[in-house]
């Protein structure tokens, strides 16, 4: 297995408060990021996402713990590591009176790269900013301004890119366009760490997902494995006639009967009730066949599989993984 591009161990950040109080923003965070992946870090407001990014990008000084990027210890070789890291911050922080082209070129120079008009033009074209290259940033729409932040972060050709809420305040059409651009970055070999409030973004794009709450990592897993292991299938079966009890023929399924006897409610996980490797949806199919065979008639069935958002909400509410 290849060495991780980023390794975080025992990372803590404690802020001092008034009258001797303190606030723990990061609490013993351990995390490894693989080269070339898209990693989504999910958590509610105040969970520590931005603090974690700031610690890696040199904007926040950790209280304790280690951060290693590209083999460099950020405590001693931060300059060498930071030159290979890009950051798209959550807040719009740039000179609004500067032109798009000059702002992006300036960011490239900050990291010691020589001027390269052709590369700047390529970045602007990839983000649909080339036609706006001579416009002042203040003249752009909110979505365009956020694209400028991405262009600035890409100007020095980073190998690891942090995107802190990159589509916040961006309309649906522009969000979809930015998803495509992030996918193109991965195809070029850039490792992407994404924080987002739009969990469908993580579900659509991420290879792995980490969930953070109150400064602690609750879970890190491959997205598909997480959804299979923690996801559920729910089905509501509307019966043609009321039942007094769950029929014996389907007693082995995880079913409850509504008070009026007119609905059977199924809730199962990734593994079927019989212990086989079939999915919850396959379990529901077997259930409906068993009902028909037992002579139980039904009018309709509504099936819902858990989304990543359902899993996220359950984890954050409970405060941990089983």
Account of the 3D structure:
This protein has ten helices and 14 strands. By secondary structure, it is an alpha/beta fold. The strands form three sheets. A six-stranded mixed sheet has the order 6-7-8-3-9-10, with helices on both faces. Strands 2-1-4-5 form a four-stranded antiparallel sheet. Strands 12-13-11-14 form a four-stranded antiparallel sheet. α6 links the parallel β7 (about 160-165) and β8. The longest helix is centred in the middle third of the chain and has 16 residues, at about 170-185.
Q: What is the tally of beta strands?
A: 14
Average of the residue pLDDT scores: 84
User: Hey, roughly how much beta strand do the residues contain?
Assistant: 25-35%
H/E element order: EEEHEEHEHHHEHEHEEHEEEHEH
Indicate the percent of residues in helices: 25-40%
Q: Which blocks of ≥5 consecutive residues have pLDDT under 50?
A: 271-277
Summarize the biggest pleated sheet.
6 strands, mixed
- Rg, please? 25 Å
Number of helices: 10
- Strands of the largest sheet, in order across it? 6-7-8-3-9-10
What form results from the Cα inertia axes?
Answer: elongated
How is the quaternary structure best described? single chain
List keywords for this structure.
322 residues, alpha/beta, four-stranded antiparallel beta sheet, 10 helices, 28% strand
Could you outline the blueprint of secondary structure elements for this entry?
Layout: E1 6-16, E2 22-33, E3 38-42, H1 49-56, E4 64-69, E5 72-73, H2 78-82, E6 85-88, H3 100-110, H4 117-126, H5 142-154, E7 160-164, H6 172-187, E8 191-195, H7 199-205, E9 208-213, E10 216-222, H8 223-230, E11 232-239, E12 255-257, E13 263-269, H9 280-293, E14 298-305, H10 308-318
